[in-house]
Amino acid sequence: MEKIERLKSDQGGENESMIFEVIKRGLDQNVPVLPRQVVDLGLRYDLTLPLTRFYASNKSSLPRVFKSFQTGNVWRAERPQKGRFREFTQFDLDIIGEKSITAEIELISAGLQILIDLNLENSSTLLVNDRRILRDIMLRARIDIDDHSSTLIILDKIDKIGRSGVEKELKELRGLTSVQVEELFDLIERMERDSDCFQSSEWEWYDIPYLIASLRKIYPDFKVSFSPTLVRGMGYYTGPIYEVVNDFSNKSICGGGRYDDMISKWSGDSVPAVGFSFGFERIMDLLPESWHISNGEHLAIGYSSINQFQEAITLQKHLLEAGISEVSLVKKPKKIKAVFFEDLSRQACDRFFDMDDFAPSLLKDKRYIIEVSRPILRQA
């Protein structure tokens, strides 16, 4: 459970209308009250909000770049149907404290590798967009800033109700004019055409071209596409957003994005943050009855620059394919001290490989990587 004021902070988008609310305990049963006046708690609708609360309360004792993996149940007052539940399980990966696009590349790569390991890559497509791009489109369509959130909620329904349904709701529910709606979709269609090469100077593409190019280079067989109508339902996203759709599911099976402003709501400090969430039940519906998960050593790869990061994440992919069960990426400080290895030890890493020891000719040789990597406990 979370405090109701945290859950209803105008950051959860449409999910805030589906909160299971909890009335205060010990009320006088003889005194009439309105339920909305005595609600103080609610069941969490995702794992991100509790994570940001935890980080804000424990920031001083956490690593500068905090990487989190968590799983837990969440609740939404949905109308139960195939692929939608009132109680379901989420698996979340988050990186807090890294402002560069390397955080998105690392998280999405982890997500794609999981789907590949589960043999879902041939039927899945990664869709990518950026909340800043959506903001720019709405401003150019002369939609008031106060109407942006509600417009995005309706635009997010385009896969369910089609363009005509979205146009109707934008006019009838949001009061947009026919000219505004027509211009909005004209901009979206032009941007979609120009996204083939991302070379048009008409648009600010932000980090999208680099993000897509990097993911296509690392996972050339995984379909990655730019989608200017991808919104993601949460109101707290501030930058790149992404989700994976599967040919055999009518819902996204995982997704996430950057939420740089959320932690400052609780702590006052601006902290960059990126997340990737997996829908456990939706993925389970797509899997055969059994699959194999390997166990073994946890290796950390240290890199020092964004160019070296590209080599590191490629090496991570090869090592996972070679059978090492866990391979983490960590940005090295300018001078490595014992505290660096202590942090790795707390993250249950067994060995550390420095990209400065990287030998391109031995990229796929797992034995070489293990041989030159350092045991974490001995270093710490």
From TrEMBL:
InterPro entries: aa-tRNA-synth_II (IPR006195), aa-tRNA-synth_II/BPL/LPL (IPR045864), HisRS-like_core (IPR041715), HisRS/HisZ (IPR004516)
Keywords annotated in UniProt: Ligase
Sections of the chain in a coiled coil: none
SUPFAM superfamilies referenced in this protein's UniProt entry, alphabetically: Class II aaRS and biotin synthetases
Gene3D superfamilies (alphabetical): Bira Bifunctional Protein, Domain 2
Annotated Aminoacyl-transfer RNA synthetases class-II family profile domain residues: 69-333
GO molecular function, one term: histidine-tRNA ligase activity
Family named by the database record: Belongs to the class-II aminoacyl-tRNA synthetase family.
Protein name: Histidyl-tRNA synthetase
